[in-house]
């Protein structure tokens, strides 16, 4: 039970670090730990007309975080995003995308743009 609580706390801290980094880059956080009937989205943010759905992974290396995002998780996040967009149609005024933020205990969080796009591994920003 203590280990589970510790992992939960680490996840909450990783999401807070990711949100802080995104705000520093000019993103406005619309939602944290957004629950839908089909899954949870760690962060939803908007800058200008672009809305991003962000999965946060806490790993020792950024590459490990990208590999930890399984096809099943991608589908679940995309379904949750569709559900959220149905309730927030204004977000469809501009492009939407799926990003990943890799959080390391000692380093600045790394933002992977278009992490969920087919045929690409995303790019670090």
Overview of the molecule:
With 125 residues, this protein is α+β, with helices and mostly antiparallel strands. Helix content is 37%, strand content 33%. The chain has helices spanning 2-24, 62-67, 71-87; strands spanning 28-36, 39-47, 50-58, 96-103, 110-113, 123-124. Strands 1-2-3-4-5-6 form a 6-stranded mixed beta sheet. The chain is globular. The relative contact order is 0.17.
* Order of secondary-structure elements: HEEEHHEEE
User: Which percent range fits the helix content?
Assistant: 25-40%
Q: Please, what is the average pLDDT?
A: 85
Number of domain modules: 1
How far apart the termini lie comes to 37 Å
What portion of residues belong to β-strands? Answer: 25-35%
Q: Which class best fits the helix and strand makeup?
A: alpha+beta
Radius of gyration (CA) equals: 14 Å
Question: What quaternary form is this?
Answer: single chain
Which ranges are low-confidence, i.e. pLDDT below 50, for 5 or more consecutive residues? 118-125
Shape: globular
Features:
125 residues, 3 helices, 6 strands, 37% helix, globular
Architecture blueprint of SSEs:
Layout: H1 2-24, E1 28-36, E2 39-47, E3 50-58, H2 62-67, H3 71-87, E4 96-103, E5 110-113, E6 123-124
Parallel strand pairs: 3-4
Antiparallel strand pairs: 1-2, 2-3, 4-5, 5-6
Report a brief summary of the structure:
With 125 residues, the protein is of the alpha+beta class. The protein has three helices and six strands.
């Amino acid at each position: 039970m203590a280990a589970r609580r510790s992992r939960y706390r680490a996840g909450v801290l990783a999401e807070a670090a990711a949100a802080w980094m995104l705000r520093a880059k000019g993103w406005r956080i619309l939602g944290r730990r957004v629950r839908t009937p089909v899954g949870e989205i760690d962060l939803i943010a908007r800058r200008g007309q672009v809305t991003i759905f962000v999965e946060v992974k806490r790993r020792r290396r950024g590459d490990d975080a990208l590999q930890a995002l399984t096809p099943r998780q991608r589908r679940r996040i995309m379904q949750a995003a569709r559900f959220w967009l149905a309730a927030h149609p204004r977000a469809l005024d501009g492009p939407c995308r799926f990003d990943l933020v890799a959080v390391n205990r000692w380093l600045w969080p790394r933002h992977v743009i278009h992490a969920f796009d087919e045929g690409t591994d995303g790019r670090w920003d």
